[in-house]
Specification:
Strand content: under 5%
Helix content: over 70%
CATH topology of one domain: Methane Monooxygenase Hydroxylase, Chain G, domain 1
Organism: Meganyctiphanes norvegica (Northern krill)
Radius of gyration: 23 Å
InterPro entries: FKBP4/5/8-like (IPR050754), TPR-like_helical_dom_sf (IPR011990), TPR_2 (IPR013105), TPR_rpt (IPR019734)
Protein name: peptidylprolyl isomerase
CATH architecture of one domain: Up-down Bundle
Number of strands: 0
Structural class: mainly alpha
Subcellular location: Cytoplasm
Main location: cytoplasm
CATH class of one domain: Mainly Alpha
Largest sheet: none
């Protein structure tokens, strides 16, 4: 009957969206695996392309979670039922998005010249989505170190060191280097201040 609302359309929309999310997750996982295979073979450009493609699918999922309310860009926005997503799916989306960003950061660190600003962007995503990700914090600290932002590097590396219970030698070595640089900067600043007073 025209104009009746039995809720069936809303249920179908949720099922369709859930299916779309599942399909997009599978595609993103496939691209992650392709990226991992390329990375192992030192094919960095291919790996970067694969991780980037996986992230595009993840952005599509995020669009499904938070559909547009802009009538111009999406004329059907107001007619869509809200998307119901399980907590399990949300966790999978967060973890896979973090993994793709983390793997992309690993590739970017091996490319010449290294784009440290881009590494910082990727690692910030990793640490926001998975705050206990030691590699994400380490790579963030490494990127800040090379950008000569030693305070941010120290903060990231102290977090990585805490998460690894002080057991990760790479983290400890880099943290020691950062602390030396912070000490040098402090001494330089203090000397400049003393010279001005004289």
């Amino acid at each position: 009957m025209e104009g009746s609302s039995d809720g069936a359309g809303s249920s179908d929309m949720k099922t369709t969206t859930s299916l779309k999310i599942t399909e997009k997750l599978e595609k993103a996982r496939m691209y992650k695996q392709k990226g991992n295979d390329s990375f192992k073979q030192q094919q960095l450009k291919k790996a970067i392309q694969s991780y980037h493609s996986g992230l595009l699918y993840m952005k599509g999922i995020n669009h499904d979670f938070l559909p547009s309310t802009n009538k111009i860009l999406d004329p059907m926005a107001e007619t869509r039922a809200p998307v119901v997503v399980s907590e399990e799916d949300k966790i999978h989306v967060q973890q896979l998005t973090a993994d793709l960003h983390n793997n992309l950061a690993a590739c970017l660190l091996k490319q010449e010249p290294v784009k440290y600003e881009r590494v910082v962007e990727c690692c910030k995503q990793v640490t926001e989505l998975t705050p206990t990700n030691t590699k994400g914090w380490y790579r963030l600290g490494l990127a800040y170190y090379h950008l000569r932002d030693f305070q941010e590097a120290k903060t990231a590396l102290m977090t990585a060191n805490k998460l690894s219970n002080g057991q990760d030698m790479a983290v400890r070595r880099l943290l020691a280097s950062v602390e030396q640089e912070v000490k040098k900067e402090d001494e330089k600043f203090n000397n400049m201040f003393k010279n001005r007073l004289l």
